[in-house]
Amino acid sequence: MKRSKFTEEQIIGILREQEAGAKTAELCRRHGISSATFYAWKAKFGGMDVSDAKRLKALEEENGRLKRLLAESLLDQAALKDLLSRKW
């Protein structure tokens, strides 16, 4: 997945500018983003503070790590079942 060139703090700052009254089209042009990107950010980060965004990122990383651990354990379990089901 492509990494954003904007940090969560910058994204929230851009959203705050729009909440303060700046026009969306002008913000998108000034920061070099599309309006679709802006509205996707607004859906994800709208109403958040910087601390909330950092906490969300930490939780997403932990969730991904736990999903990888679960997938590895399920793979090991399937391999053991396959090995034990074979007749010698």
UniProtKB/TrEMBL annotation:
SUPFAM superfamilies: Homeodomain-like. Pfam families: HTH_Tnp_1 (PF01527). One of its GO terms (molecular function) is transposase activity. GO terms for biological process: DNA transposition. This is Putative transposase.
